[in-house]
Design goal:
The protein is of the alpha/beta class. It has two domains: about 120 residues, no CATH class; about 250 residues, Ribonuclease Inhibitor (Leucine-rich repeat, LRR (right-handed beta-alpha superhelix)), CATH 3.80.10. It has 20 helices and 13 strands. A 13-stranded parallel β-sheet has the order 1-2-3-4-5-6-7-8-9-10-11-12-13. α14 links the parallel β8 and β9. The longest helix is centred in the C-terminal third of the chain and has 32 residues. The protein is globular, with a radius of gyration of 26 Å. It starts with 6 loop residues before the first helix and ends with a helix. The relative contact order is 0.06. Keywords: Leucine-rich repeat, Repeat. This is Leucine-rich repeat-containing protein 14B. It comes from Struthio camelus australis. Belongs to the PRAME family. LRRC14 subfamily. InterPro entries: LRR_dom_sf, LRRC14/PRAME.
C-alpha cells in the first residue's frame, strides 16, 4: 500500500534526485529542511547526498530512528532499512563532519543516536544489501581510529579540539571485530566521536575478552546486555561479573545456554545462586530476562523473587521447570506484568495445566507474545488451550512450532485465532498427519523436513483461507522450521560456523590422541 507524501516531501525527493545539483546547493538550504532532505535521500538511496547532509549537519542532534521514522511529510517508517549504501554514507559523513569544517561556530552537533535502527529479514532497499549491527559496530570503530590518525597533525587546531559528539550505538562484538572495538574504546577520550554503548551483544568470544571489553563500554550506561551462544559464561562467572561491575540502568539481560545447571549443586553453589539473585535485585530497571536452555529446576523463586521490578519479558524455554517453578510464576508479582513469555520445551498439558491456566489468566490483560514450542500440545489439549488463551485479548503473536497437532486440530485453533482482535503473527507446526506414521516428538533435525510437502501446502492454504474468510488476512501465518529469523545470528553465521567446526576438530583431535595413548 502506497504511503501518502506531502508536497514538501515530493519537492525534497525531486531536489535530492539530482545528486550533483543537491550537493552544490546545500550551503543555501535552510537548516530546518535538513531532516526532510535526509529522509528523502535515504528513501532514494542517494548515498552522496546523505554523506554531504551529515557532513554539514547544522542541528544539535542527529537521531536516526526519529529522522527515518514516521514524519508529518511522509508517514512510512524507514528505520528498518539498514541499507549498506545509506548506512556507510551516514557514518563516513559523520567522520568528515569532524574533519572538514574550518569554522568552529558551524559545529553544533552534540549527539548522534544510531540506536533506533531495526534489523529485519526483508530489505526493501534497491541494493538489497543490509548493514547489520555487527558491521555497524565494525565500521564505527574503524572510523573512530581513522579520525585519530587524521587528527594527529591537527592537534593544535582549536576548532577540532572543541568538537565532542556522543555517538549512541548498540554494539555487537565477536572474536573477529574484538581488537578493533577495544582499540576504539580505549582511545575514546582523545576521539571527538565518543562511543556510548546503550546495548551490548557478545557472541563467539573468550570469557576473558568479554570481561575486558564489557568494562570498557561504561556499563553504568548499559540498558541491554546479551551474552549468547559461544560465550562460555557459567554460574560462577556470572557471580564474578555482577560482583565486579554494576549495571544500574540495565533493563534487559540475556544469558547463554547452560549458564545455570542446578542438577548437582553444592551448598556453596546454593549460596552463589542466592548471591546472583540479590545482585540482580540491585538492577532496579530490569524488566526483561532470558535464561533459555539452562537447568533451573526448583530454583526460579530463588532467582526471581529478589527482583524489585516486575518482569515484562521472560524466556525460560527448555529450563526443566517443575511444578513448584510454575506455581511460583503463576502466583508471583511478575505474572500480572508479563507481556512476552516463552515456556517452550516444557510438557505443559501433562505437568502443570492448572498453574499454566492461572499464569495466563493473570497476564492476560497485558500479554502480547506467547511461545509454546515443543510443549507436547496434542489434539486432546486444543480445547484447553483455547480456554487458556481466550482472555488474552491483547495477544499479537503466538508461536507453537513442534507440537504434535493434526490438520483438523490446527483448523479448530485457526477458527479461534480469528477471535483474537490484536493477533498479527502465528507460527504453527507442520501437521502431524503430514509426517510418516510413528514419528516421535520432539522431532530431531534429521527428520524435520521429511514430511509430505504437498499435503502441508494444501493444509497451510486451508488455514490461511480461514483467516481470509474472517477478514483477518493481515495475520501472518508461517512455519519457520528452524526457528524465527534472528538478524544477529544471520549476520555472523559464517564466523559461528567456522568456530563450531574448529571446536569439533579440536574435540576430534583430543579423542584421536586419547585412543593412540590407549593403544
Amino acid at each position: 500500500k502506497a504511503t501518502m507524501k506531502s508536497l514538501r516531501f515530493i519537492s525534497a525527493e525531486a531536489f535530492v534526485s539530482n545528486a550533483e545539483l543537491a550537493r552544490r546547493s546545500l550551503g543555501s538550504v535552510a537548516h530546518n529542511l535538513f531532516p526532510l532532505l535526509f529522509k528523502a535521500s535515504y528513501l532514494l538511496e542517494q548515498g552522496e547526498v546523505i554523506h554531504d547532509l551529515v557532513e554539514n549537519w547544522p542541528l544539535v542532534d542527529f537521531n536516526m530512528g526519529k529522522l527515518l521514522g514516521k514524519t508529518v511529510d511522509y508517514q512510512e517508517d524507514l528505520s528498518h532499512r539498514t541499507c549498506s549504501v545509506c548506512m556507510e554514507s551516514c557514518l563516513t559523513g559523520l567522520r568528515d563532519y569532524v574533519l572538514n569544517h574550518p569554522s568552529p561556530y558551524m559545529k553544533r552537533l552534540k549527539v548522534v543516536d544510531l540506536t533506533g535502527i531495526k534489523d529485519v529479514e526483508v530489505q526493501f532497499c534497491e541494493c538489497k544489501k543490509p548493514m547489520g549491527r555487527w558491521a555497524r559496530t565494525q565500521l564505527l570503530a574503524k572510523l573512530c581510529l581513522e579520525l585519530l590518525v587524521h587528527l594527529q597533525p591537527m592537534q593544535c587546531n582549536a576548532s577540532v579540539s572543541e568538537i565532542s559528539i556522543d555517538v549512541l550505538i548498540d554494539l555487537f562484538v565477536t572474536e573477529r571485530n574484538y581488537e578493533l572495538v577495544v582499540q576504539a574504546l580505549l582511545r575514546k577520550c582523545s576521539c571527538p566521536l565518543k562511543i556510548h554503548c546503550v546495548a551490548f551483544r557478545a557472541d563467539n568470544l573468550a570469557l576473558q575478552k568479554f570481561f575486558y571489553v564489557i568494562k570498557l563500554t561504561d556499563p553504568s550506561l548499559l540498558r541491554k546486555l546479551e551474552v549468547v551462544h559461544n560465550v562460555r559464561l557459567e554460574m560462577e562467572h556470572l557471580e564474578i561479573l555482577f560482583n565486579s561491575i554494576r549495571f544500574p540502568l540495565l533493563m534487559s539481560l540475556t544469558l547463554p545456554a547452560r549458564t545455570f545447571n542446578v542438577r548437582r549443586l553444592t551448598a556453596a553453589d546454593e549460596l552463589m545462586l542466592t548471591a546472583i539473585g540479590e545482585k540482580m535485585s540491585e538492577m532496579t530497571q530490569l524488566t526483561e530476562l532470558s535464561m533459555a536452555f539452562s537447568i533451573l529446576t526448583g530454583r526460579i523463586r530463588k532467582l526471581l523473587s529478589p527482583l524489585k521490578t516486575p518482569l515484562k519479558v521472560l524466556d525460560v524455554s527448555n529450563c526443566s521447570l517443575n511444578h513448584a517453578d510454575m506455581a511460583y510464576l503463576a502466583n508471583s508479582l511478575h505474572s500480572n506484568h508479563l507481556e512476552v513469555l516463552d515456556l517452550s520445551g516444557h510438557n505443559i498439558p501433562d505437568l502443570y495445566p492448572s498453574t499454566f491456566f492461572k499464569l495466563l489468566s493473570h497476564s492476560s490483560s497485558v500479554l502480547r507474545s506467547l511461545t509454546l514450542e515443543e510443549c507436547n500440545i496434542q489434539d486432546t489439549h486444543v480445547n484447553m488451550l483455547i480456554l487458556a488463551l481466550s482472555p488474552c485479548q491483547k495477544l499479537q503473536e503466538f508461536k507453537f512450532l513442534g507440537n504434535p497437532l493434526s490438520s483438523e486440530a490446527l483448523k479448530h485453533l485457526f477458527l479461534f485465532f480469528c477471535e483474537l482482535p490484536m493477533l498479527k503473527n502465528v507460527e504453527f507446526p507442520v501437521p502431524r498427519d503430514c509426517y510418516p506414521v510413528g514419528i516421535t516428538y520432539p522431532i530431531d533435525d534429521a527428520n524435520l523436513c521429511s514430511f509430505d510437502h504437498q499435503k502441508y501446502e494444501s493444509v497451510a492454504e486451508e488455514l490461511k483461507l480461514i483467516l481470509l474468510q474472517a477478514n483477518r488476512e493481515g495475520v501472518k501465518a508461517s512455519t519457520p522450521l528452524f526457528g524465527s529469523y534472528d538478524a544477529a545470528v544471520e549476520e555472523t553465521n559464517n564466523e559461528l560456523g567456522a568456530y563450531l567446526m574448529k571446536s569439533f576438530k579440536e574435540t576430534l583431535e583430543k579423542f584421536t590422541n586419547s585412543l593412540k595413548e590407549m593403544s
